[in-house]
Each structure stands twice: as C-alpha cells, then as structure tokens.
Amino acid sequence: MLFFVNCFLLITLANAGVIGGGGVVPVVGNGLIDAPVEISNIVEVTKHVPVPIIHHEVEPIPHSVPVPVPKPVAIPIPQPYPVHIKVPQPIAIPVIKTIVVPVEKPVPFPVEHPVPYHIEHPVPVPVEVNVPIHIPRPVPVKVPVYKVVVHHGHYGHHGYHGHYGHHG
C-alpha cells in the first residue's frame, strides 16, 4: 500500500512539473506498476526498492460488481417472400420460308393422235314399201262471222275503225 502511494506521488509531481527537466524513463517497481515518469537527477533507474508488505494489513481493492448488460437481440426482419412471377417470354415462332427451287420443266413428249378410221356409211337405196297412210277427213270448223257496219261520211282522222270504233 505504501508503494502505491509513493508511486502515485512521484507520478503526480512529475506530471505537475515539479520534478522535471529530463527525459521520460520508465520506473520499474516490484512488477505491479510500470509507469513513465519524468526524472532529472536519478541515475540508477532500474534499482529495485524493497518495500515491506504485510499481508494481513492489505485491504482488498474493491472490484466493480459485474452488471449484466443487455445485449442487443438480433430480431429477424421479415424479408419479402420470394414470389416467382413468370414473365411472358416472346415465343419463337418458326417462320417457314417458301424457297422456290428452279425445276426444269419436262418437254412434253409429242403424242401421236390416232388417225380416225374412215367409216363408209351405207348408201341409201330407195325401197318400195307398202305402208297404209291414214288420211284424216276434213273436220268442219266454225268460223265466227263478224257483222261489217259501213259508216257513211268521213272516217275520222284515224281511218276506218270497223266495229271497234268509239264514235262515228
């Protein structure tokens, strides 16, 4: 305990500028504290100074009580459900091209038409045949007799009308 107080005073004086003027040299103690201290007149720097420590008088250094610090809990953020939407792709329609291949037309083979045979028709020969011919008797025909009216005077501008005339 005495060692800690001496080191504390030495460091405080050095920081305040009371002891100074030289470089910064580490002070080596009993392995508990290594602190850089500005010193000027000290020559033996690494000399161990025995400090009597009585164990039954040593007060325990109070340690901080561990307080559970709540750690951030990783909350899963709901991601959007991957929905696969079928994008209509253009369908490749096979285009059938009509390719005109020049084909040599066959020369028509001359077909010989058959010559028609000359058929001789028989010559008509008059032959006397006794066939009774029916002669119809005359049938009396009734002919209507029209009465002809003769108009005296002029016949009008249309001429003679016969019995179909309208007026004389």
From TrEMBL:
<keyword id="KW-0732">Signal</keyword>
<protein>
    <submittedName>
        <fullName>Uncharacterized protein</fullName>
    </submittedName>
</protein>
<feature type="signal peptide">
    <location>
        <begin position="1"/>
        <end position="16"/>
    </location>
</feature>
